[in-house]
Design a protein that fits this description.
Layout (H helix, E strand, L loop, with lengths): L8 H12 L1 H51 L3 H4 L3 H14 L3 E8 L4 E4 L12 H9 L3 E2 L3 E2 L6 E10 L5 E10 L2 H6 L9 E6 L4 E5 L14 H9 L3 E7 L5 E10 L6 E10 H4 L1 H32 L1 H15 L14 H68 L7 H24 L8 E3 L1 H16 L3 E6 L7 E3 L1 H18 L4 E12 L1 H6 L6 E10 L6 H5 L18 H11 L3 E6 L5 E8 L23 E5 L3 H13 L3 E5 L2 H7 L9 E5 L7 H11 L4 E6 L7 E2 L2 E2 L4 E4 L4 H12 L2
Parallel strand pairs: 13-15, 19-20, 19-21, 21-22, 22-25
Antiparallel strand pairs: 1-2, 1-6, 3-5, 4-5, 5-6, 7-8, 7-11, 9-10, 10-11, 12-14, 15-16, 16-18, 17-18, 23-24
Helix pairs in contact: 1-9, 2-9, 10-11, 11-12, 11-18, 12-17, 13-14, 14-17
């Protein structure tokens, strides 16, 4: 026999289905399930019939009690309150009707005045059946009680005795002894494990047979799930419920009331084990399941026997390849002939997938390295920003006091040189913190729309003086370069750092080339540069013909304080600053370098699309003075508070200073003179600077606000860019910077 016929999976599946005879097996199983469903449906009907039979019995008891009590109201001795005669009459009724545990009469105050069973004085005014009879003036039912005359569990019925005007004179009460229900229902023929039960209107158990344990004592509530079902459902119903004995039963119930529209006064239950009702059907289904399992096993054996000779070796080969792929080895081939039917096609797909995975694995490794580098720079940036923030506050104190002391000393004072050294050291330290903040993208910027070529042209002479005459600068501007939106000071900062790095990479004579160009980057380029988003960019490149860098150096290039220069020849913050500037302006940077072949930095700024505006800045050489204008000053760092206050007062302003927002608000509550300016720190306890400004403007709408901080804050900026209309001064600042800023704000 030529077994190659079975190489086609599409032909093999019908053969296996035919061998397994699935239609017949499914028919056997279906018939078993249907037989079981029918048995359960029949069980539901039988259980419902039993509970309705119980309900009829109870309705007879209720009707009998109503007839008996209503008849008693017509008896003269009862009607005329002949109490001794009533006692004897009630005793005789109990003797003839042992279902009642007691019959008694209570006056309209609830006091028992006649009883078949002698008892001490008893009042029934709080009983439901008594209150309902007085309220409705009709036959009423009660609830589960312990009788106050017989001290036995009972269920009472009441009937009012009315005078000629229809007023209640007394209430006749008949209490049914709950144990009497056993005689009525124990003769019912039900399967083992079944039960009968009765509960009152509140869900308290009146009767249950059999009683499996203490938790089924009379007067206890039934299961909440069952109670919710019966009191909200139809008059008669059926549910499936597992009991505390772990037996699942069909539970039928019937709700009893005294007439249409009246609330239920009693519920009857019958529960029969589901397993017993479906026993015969389950046996048939079990037999069918055994037959089904045997047939299915035979089909599996036949299928295995056929497949073992045809598919096993090829499938094992595919499995081995899949395991290798799962372990990350994509160099293994299946070795299965692609012409061997569907398995051959699967094997061919495996081989093609392995090739694609090999390529993707290499690409993933490359992207993983780029991601790790970006995450490392981000973490270092957060640390650097935090350090710079705290350091700026200390520098503010050093620089401010040094500058103020210098203003008080004569030019020939011997202490002046030392103070100058302190001021210069603080200036240099301030520049370092600005570089740290630039790398961490925490510096506050005011971007404007500019032409990059014009900005670079204005920097060329300064750059040439910076790098020296032995290195030539070649300027290659692009034609019609698109506008970008960036802080001009950041462009200067970026060019200076790149030019200095290029100069230090050139030994002796060399060339630095600065070029610009428009670039449109597509999705293919972005796939290889994960920081790039497809779109239009303006490229700025700075390249040199120096000694270049290896891969290890490039991996650490933008880390703060990393430098290849000798001791004392660099801070290691230049390229870190460049990285922070580019990222803060939503651009990205690429580095191309090889040892001995120079280095090229390519920076991409997003193209700006929109209207362009020019802002003119007034240059001022002298320090402008104030004329007694009132300024509010809030700063939680006391040394800076006192320093800034001294600066402002020295400039001729009146100052109200406070260390907390709450202190300032208290100081100006009753202030009548006009406030010209509020100067406040951004981050403070109690509330931030912006919230304080809003509170003060509510009291003094004409006041202007100047925020100060050592680092950018989302309270007044968005990603480092000042919000519209916000005035800001960066710590540390000099007296002149403060004077210029305050003067401009007060004088427009």
């Amino acid at each position: 026999m030529n077994l190659r016929f079975f190489h086609s999976v599409r032909l093999l599946i019908p053969v296996l289905v035919t061998v397994a005879v699935l239609p017949s097996l499914l028919a056997l199983l279906y018939s078993g399930f249907e037989a079981r469903k029918k048995a359960l449906r029949d069980g539901e009907l039988e259980t419902l019939r039993l509970v309705q039979s119980m309900a009829v019995t109870q309705e007879r008891i209720t009707a009998s009690a109503q007839v008996m009590l209503s008849s008693l109201t017509l008896v003269p001795s009862v009607n005329k309150f002949d109490l001794p005669a009533c006692n004897e009459l009630f005793k005789e009724i109990i003797r003839l009707n042992p279902i009642y545990t007691n019959i008694l009469m209570a006056n309209r105050n609830g006091d028992v005045i006649a009883s078949a069973i002698p008892s001490p004085p008893v009042n029934l005014a709080d009983r439901k059946h008594f209150k309902d009879a007085c309220l409705t003036r009709k036959f009423s039912t009660g609830e589960y009680i312990i009788s106050r005359t017989t001290y036995e569990p009972a269920f009472p019925f009441s009937y009012p005795l009315l005078d000629e005007k229809g007023q209640v004179q007394a209430v006749l009460i008949a209490a049914v002894e709950l144990k009497q229900y056993r005689e009525h229902f124990s003769e019912q023929s039900v399967p083992k494990g079944s039960f009968f039960g009765i509960v009152d209107h509140a869900g308290l158990r009146l009767f249950r047979i059999p009683v499996p344990g203490a938790e089924f004592d009379l007067g206890k509530p039934i299961a909440p799930l069952v109670w919710d079902f019966v009191r909200t459902g139809e008059k008669n119903g059926v549910m499936f419920q597992e009991g505390s004995d772990k037996v699942r039963r069909i539970i039928a119930f019937s709700r009893l009331n005294l007439g249409p529209g009246t609330p239920a006064y009693m519920y009857m239950f019958v529960g029969i084990p589901e397993k017993i009702l479906a026993k015969n059907a389950s046996n048939v289904m079990f037999s069918n399941a055994l037959l089904t399992g045997g047939s299915w096993l035979l089909a599996l054996l036949l299928s295995w026997g056929i497949g073992r000779n045809l598919f096993l070796k090829k499938i094992r080969r595919l499995t081995d390849c899949a395991s290798q792929f799962g372990a990350g080895n994509f160099n293994m081939l299946t070795g299965v002939d692609p012409k061997d039917g569907e398995i051959g096609q699967v094997a061919e797909a495996f081989d093609q997938m392995a090739g694609r995975l090999r390529q993707a694995d290499m690409e993933r490794d490359r992207l993983q390295q780029q991601l790790i580098q970006a995450q490392k720079l981000e973490s270092v940036g957060r640390l650097a920003g935090g350090v710079a923030h705290d350091f700026n506050n200390m520098l503010m104190v050093i620089l401010g006091h040094a500058e103020m002391l210098l203003g008080q000393l004569s030019s020939d004072d011997p202490s002046r040189a030392s103070l100058e050294n302190i001021r210069q050291a603080a200036d240099k330290s301030s520049n370092l913190t600005r570089q740290l903040l630039a790398f961490a993208r925490k510096q506050t910027i005011s971007p404007v729309v500019l032409e990059l070529n014009d900005t670079i042209v204005g920097m060329l002479k300064m750059l040439q003086r910076l790098i020296g005459e032995n290195i030539r600068i070649v300027w290659a501007p692009g034609m019609a370069v698109w506008p970008i939106k960036v802080d001009p000071a950041q462009v200067d900062q970026l060019l200076v750092n790149l030019a200095v790095n290029a100069r230090d990479a050139i030994d002796g004579v060399g060339t630095i080339t600065i070029a610009t160009a428009n670039m449109t980057l597509d999705a293919a380029y972005s796939a290889d540069h994960f920081e790039c988003v497809p779109g239009d960019y303006v490229m700025l490149s700075v390249s040199d013909d120096g000694y270049g860098m290896d891969k290890a150096t490039q991996a650490q290039l933008f880390e703060p304080f990393f430098t290849t220069k000798g001791l004392g020849k660099g801070t290691g913050l230049g390229l870190a600053t460049v990285y922070g500037v580019v990222k803060q302006n939503k651009g990205f940077i690429g580095v191309y370098s090889e040892p001995g072949k120079g280095t090229c930095f390519k920076i991409y700024f997003p193209r700006y699309v929109g209207a362009t505006t020019e802002e003119a800045k007034e240059l001022r050489t002298e320090i402008p003075q104030g004329h007694g204008e009132l300024i509010l000053l809030v700063e939680d760092e006391l040394t800076i508070l006192h320093l800034a206050q001294a600066m402002l007062e020295q400039l001729g302003y009146q100052v109200i200073a406070a260390a907390t927002p709450g202190e300032m608000l208290s100081s100006i509550t009753e202030l009548s003179c006009p406030i010209r300016l509020l100067i406040t720190d951004v981050i403070m306890p109690e509330m931030n600077g912006r919230e304080l400004a809003d509170r003060i403007k509510a009291l003094h709408p004409e006041v202007q606000c100047l925020f100060m901080s050592g680092y950018t804050s989302n309270i007044i900026t968005h990603q480092g860019i000042l919000d519209e209309g916000v005035q800001f001064i960066e710590k540390p600042f000099t007296v002149k910077i403060l004077a210029d800023k305050v003067y401009r704000m007060l004088n427009g």
